[in-house]
Amino acid sequence: MARVDVTTIELLVALDDLRSLSAAADRLGISQPAASARLREFEARWQLAVAVRSPRGTVLTEDGQAVVAWARRVAAELESFETGIAALSAERGSDLDIAASLTIAEFVLPRWLGELRVRLPEVRPHLLVVNSDAVLGAVRSGAASVGFIETTYAPQDLEHRVIGHDRLVIVVAPHHPWARRAYPVPLEQLRAAEYVLREPGSGTRSTFERALRSIPRVAIEASSTTAVIGAALSGAGPTVISGLAVRHHVETGQLVEVASELDLRRPLSAVWGRGQRLAAPARELLSVAALHASTRTAHP
Q: Are 209 and 216 in contact (CB under 8 A)?
């Protein structure tokens, strides 16, 4: 069956609106002879007389009025189609503001963003790296459309989704007394020790405090994972940190993982505004994150 092209549909609608073939041609940006030829071709193909031309203008026939009624519905659907495509294109080409806690930002998010770029090269991510509490604040304020945190609690005022898991480890320098222990360190000794720790508000700190069920004693406090590792390497004290962050140091013997009875597992979660629907790039990023988490990206 022969197809009716979009320009002819638009011409029929314009003809009904303007009662003038030349005016209809102007609306479509084509010449009057071209519009006239297109109308004659349509009538010949379908063996219908849709318009009567006279010195006073062009009037639709009864068949023409029926055809135009159908054409208007098609034109409306086409407009909706184009509007939807334009919105989707703008959405996919927009900036993506992300806030992420330090462990996620340093050790897993770069891989996620690399995969996102392969899938949606037109998306421009902007990354804010802060602790988990500050991530929640950025999402609440609208500074970030999606955030990634590593805390064991789920904020009730935000949408959230667990996308993977991580495990903290207690590590010490090789000369520390705990490095030679054959059995887990008792809870009393863990509570009595002084630690090199991340600052309050970090997911690492809150997970450790919850597992220890007390406020730990702090020898050195730092807002940088790198600084925490450096202090632990120098022998400043035991530290509690993501296994992802010290995998290399443990494998090479620079740090020793200490056994304990503490449950130091924690979820890695995505958060966004309550009741909000994530834009397409953010949804795609969550899909990438979940895929990598399922292939042990988030496990030490």
A: yes
User: Does residue 1 sit within a domain?
Assistant: no
Q: Please indicate, yes or no, whether residues 80 and 105 belong to a single structural domain of this protein.
A: no
Strands 239-242, 158-172: pairing is antiparallel
Looking at the structure, do residues 114 and 222 belong to the same domain, yes or no? yes
**Model confidence over 145-203: pLDDT tens digits?**
999 999 888 788 999 999 888 899 999 999 999 999 989 999 999 999 999 999 999 99
One-letter amino acid identity for 161? R
